[in-house]
Amino acid sequence: MVETEPPPQALADRRQLLRIVDNVVTNAVKFTPDGGTVRLAVRTEGARAILEVTDTGVGIHRTEQPDLFNRFYRGVGAVEEAVPGSGLGLAISQVIAQAHGSTIEVKSNPGTGSTFSLSLPLARSATD
C-alpha cells in the first residue's frame, strides 16, 4: 500500500534513494507474514520530506535495534528462521542516508511490526 499526496520534491540522488526504498521495503515484505500489510507513506514536515515504511511483521526486539545498521548484522529471528539475506541492506541504506545529511530511524516492537523512516530536505521550488 502506498500513501501520499502530491509527492514532495526532496534533495536526493534518485538512484540512491531508490536503493534505500528497495532495501527497506524488501525487508518489510520478508518479515511480514502472509496477510500482513506493508505501507509506504511520504509526507512533509516543515522543510523536510519524510518517507516511512511501516509493516505489520514480526517486529524487532529493542536490544537488537542498535545493531540493525551494522554491516553483516542479522537479527536472531532472521538467523533462527533462516531468512535469506546478507545483513548489508540496512547498513548500505544508512550510509546513503548519511551522505544525504540524514539517518534512517526505526521504531519497532516484537509482534507488532516496524516503522523505518528517512527524513530529507525539501527541494526549493522555482518560486522560493
What are the key terms here?
Heat Shock Protein 90, alpha+beta, 3 helices
Which structural class fits the helix and strand makeup? alpha+beta
Cα separation of the termini = 32 Å
CATH architecture: 2-Layer Sandwich
State mean pLDDT (0 to 100 scale): 86
What's the total count of β strands? 5
Strand order of the largest sheet: 1-2-3-5-4
Largest sheet: 5 strands, mixed
Number of domains: 1
Query: Share of helix among residues?
Result: 25-40%
| Low-confidence blocks of residues | none
If helices are DSSP runs of H or I spanning 4 or more residues, what is the number of helices? 3
CATH class: Alpha Beta
What is the fold named in CATH at topology level?
A: Heat Shock Protein 90
Q: Which helices and strands, and how do they pair?
A:
Elements: E1 2-4, H1 14-30, E2 38-45, E3 48-55, H2 76-80, H3 89-99, E4 104-109, E5 113-121
Parallel strand pairs: 1-2
Antiparallel strand pairs: 2-3, 3-5, 4-5
Helix pairs in contact: 1-3
Commentary on this structure:
- This protein is α+β, with helices and mostly antiparallel strands and 128 residues long.
- The protein has a single domain, classed as Histidine kinase-like ATPase, C-terminal domain (Heat Shock Protein 90), CATH 3.30.565.
- The chain is 26% helix and 27% strand.
- It contains three helices and five strands, in the order βαββααββ.
- It has a five-stranded mixed β-sheet with strand order 1-2-3-5-4.
- Helix 1 runs antiparallel to helix 3.
